[in-house]
Amino acid sequence: MELGKVGVVVVGYPGVGKSTLAEKYLQFVDLESNSFKLADEHVDDWEVIYCQAAEHIATEGRIVFISSHKIVRDYLLSLPQYNDVKIMAVVPSQELKFEWIEKLKERFEDSELSKDWYAYTRARDHYFYDVNCIKEEFEAREYPVLEITSMEYDLKGLLDQFILEKFGLSF
């Protein structure tokens, strides 16, 4: 990836492929939000540290995927826009609701991880609301949103094209 010192922070809806890309390509980082929260303790302002870490990594010319938790989005979208860190979101379309929820359910059944259970149940109960909120919040700040419209997609290919189109960056 040739981004120089310009990077991208990508808020990704559960199941879009954040971890998969980060496992395959060095330019992608999946910054796991659970690493910034302690299970047994209330940690004040964890989202601030989390977003600052994402921005710092992005300034190294990386594409950093972060969670789509409301608290994370609120903090990230409250920050001033910087030239060296571009911000965007990736969400599935409303039409994919049932297939997406099934995908998240299968992921949980395979992994049995609590974070995957949370992602599945949150999508099951709030899919339309969450996807609409992300789109509206980002568009209100004039940040681009990549919408996945098919279950058969290549996230890397979509991101390559989208980031080039929206930010003039290629990798």
Structure description:
With 171 residues, this protein is of the alpha/beta class. The chain has one domain: 3-Layer(aba) Sandwich (Rossmann fold), CATH 3.40.50. Helix content is 49%, strand content 15%. The protein is built from 6 helices and 5 strands. It has helices at residues 18-24, 46-58, 70-78, 97-111, 114-140, 155-167; strands spanning 7-12, 28-30, 63-66, 85-92, 145-148. A 5-stranded parallel sheet has the order 2-3-1-4-5, sandwiched between helices. Strand 2 (28-30), helix 2 and strand 3 (63-66) form a beta-alpha-beta unit. Helix 2 packs across helix 3 and helix 4 packs antiparallel against helix 5. The radius of gyration is 15 Å and the shape is globular. The mean pLDDT is 92.
